[in-house]
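Researcher: Let's try something more involved. This one mixes different molecule types, so please make sure each is placed in the same coordinate frame as the others.
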Amino acid sequence: MSEAVVECIGVSKSYGPVAAVCEVSFALRQGEILSILGPSGCGKTTLLRLIAGFERVDAGEVRVQGRVVSSPRTHAPPERRHIGMVFQDYALFPHLTVAQNVVFGLRSASDAERRARLDEVLRLVRLEGMGGRYPHELSGGQQQRVALGRTLAPRPVTVLLDEPFSNLDASLRSQMRQEVQHLLRGQRTATIFVTHDREEAFAMADRVGVMLNGRLVQVDTPGAMYRSPTTPEVAATTGVCDFLPGVVEGERVATEAGRLLWTSTGHLAQGAAVNVLVRADDFLVMPNPHGNGVVASREYRGDAMVLVVRLPSGTTVRCRQGPYSELATGTQVTLAPSRVQPFVAYAKTRDG
Amino acid sequence: MQGDSSSQVLTVRLADLTRARTRRGLSSLPSLWLLGPSVFIALAMLVPVAYLALRSAGASDSAWELLFRARTAWTLGRTALLAVSVTGVAVLLAVPLAWLTARSDLPWRRFWGVVSVLPLVIPSYVSAFLVVSALGPRGLLQQMLEPLGVERLPEIYGLPGATLALGLLTYPYVLLTVRGAMENLDASLEQSARSLGYGPWRAFWHVTLPQLRPAIAAGALLVALYTLSDFGAVSLMRYETFTWSIYQQYQSAFDRSVAAVLSLALVAMATAILVLESRSRGRMKYYRSGSGASRRAGVTRLGRWRWPAAAFCGIVASLALALPVAILGYWLARGIAAGEALSPLWSEARNSLYGSVLAALVAVPAAALLVRHPGKLSRGLEFTSYVGYALPGVVVALALVFFGANYARPVYQSIWLLVFAYVVLFFPVALSAVRSAMVQINPRLEEAARGLGLSPPKVMARVTFPLLRPGVLAGAALVFLVAMKELPATIILGPLGFATLATAIWSASSEAFFARAAAPGLLLILLSSVPMAFLVVRLRSPEGTRT
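Model: All components are placed in one shared frame. Result:
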């Protein structure tokens, strides 16, 4: 068997006529952090629950360390999977103290082992001396650390995190993100976490999987995911983007913003009508009285100025410029590519 | 007092639905016209206790000696024994029923969910009379077994009969609180335990049950207080508890301060139970610590236990509900066959309705006004409503007899003093129903209305009271339900010749005229079913009230 810690092969789950998870396949390697990114309702939480064993699969298999734990015929109960799960609301047992929560999963250990592991875990999650507190006596970040500690204490083969930072306020969120990442990497625990926050998905993970309508559309490193999304939907999920219509002419695509180098995951014939993916950082906006673009609106972001440039066909392109950009609304401009890498082109579908 | 706590359970359930938000009221001062009724209610709640204390202080030495006699200790022991056994039976019946109707794939789960609550409409004296008429000497069972040569059945009077009669009709109190807690329990807690290596049973035992402990304790508290205050069942079962000996002292002794002293002892016992329960909660908190969306618990498959579980529900429901109604019907038919004159029950029914409707009309609006104005006053009333929990009907009635005969001659021996007693007894019921509706109203709504240019009185009229209406209706239904069933205060305070359905049942069955008690019994259950149906419908549709 491969070194995959968790492997999903064609996993599907529907609720009545609604397919929540549809033929999802991926493999999680030892020590790897995989984030599943998708809008709410895309099935990402259901996928976690299928892996953890809280739901049964309709089709496909889930394997943990090579052993089939879920298939239409077999279903290992959650308690036999050695998979740790951190819930969105942490699910700390309110009737138990921090220490009791942490050792909850250490049933077969001796008292001495349990005490040793408790100290170790409390140190790990930086909650020394808090063992006697009750969950409601802790702050949000501390509660999350208890939840993580409780999950890590029995040394699970993998940890699943369900929207782990959505309950924290923005400033605490980035701090906890770093802390949790550091902790998981230090433990070399294979981790899957689901989120709808793309910044979070990119910042924490070795690989990102984009999930849309129950399907895992693409799994890639954060960089590859951002630079070359396989579909326009993935592109829209992974960052701000616009699409420039164009026509393939050899190694370039003719668009209103000039002739651009292109690449594609599929085959594109000469003269094919395409949409070119444009990220906000792809163009420099230059004032030019004879330019074919016009600044339609400006959005000041503090660290950047986002200009919306309207082209003759009415297509608009968002362009992020330095915060000192002085270009006023109504200024005639031209767009110049700010990158040397080819642009990703998608064949135009009939309706788009 | 019969069944006043039923309502409290229901309202605890209502409050459970929306535990999430505690209300911060708008900072409007209660106006003077509110202060009047509030102070009146507060005083009314305190009159019985204060008067009993005064009366006891002035009691003769012999009365105090009586309190410390061996016989009093004996009564205390019997009362405590009954409270413990009834509570035990109620919890043992209620927790499995709650789990089955809330969390399993029991066949006809919704049906059982409704049916299992309905025994609340059966007053304890009806339940007791049915147990006696079915299992007592020359009862139905013995008559059926007579051809087989069975001359005597095991003694049903006393502790076993009283436990059976009370346990079967008090278990819904525990059921409602526990089921409410179960439905609100965050499923991710149990799932965390599962993913940490606990099997389904161990997860239930180590995580779910501890979470349910406060709900079980709250339900058990209501059952225990109910048992302490019960008069009908124990008197018919000839099991001497405090309420029964207080009543006997009141009826027979010249020195009525003996009854006052015993009443104080009973109130002290009830208060002790209250304190015990609130102490048991400790430092742990039982609501979820996180703030994220909670996931509703899934349904557990029973597998081959499905039908045995349904049979269990069926047995409890038929013992507690179907059998009583059937036996009442049987006695009624037998009475008619034997030429028993079916006395017109119109006046009794009218009296029952009068008293209950008046009680609801006084108690509920006062509660609505008070709840609208949080502050010192309402906190004080919260305390007095706790006192109300611990005041048995027989004690309130007794206090008001003393009070009425000495200071309130004009209302003494009138229906007004009785209604006053109902208000004292059931005001906490109305208050908690209205309050639980109030906490569901998001204060932001009122603020939004203010922001849209409505003056505070207009906000109250157009936003607050319309939103409060379900709570007001529920409170009224509850007060009506419990006042209908009330027995001891009605016996003691009712004007001469004043009979209600409750007193008619009690006087007929205490003399073993079972056939004569059947008709008012059925009618009372029928009338009580109307508010009960209303409440069940409300309980079954909680989604609209969640946030």
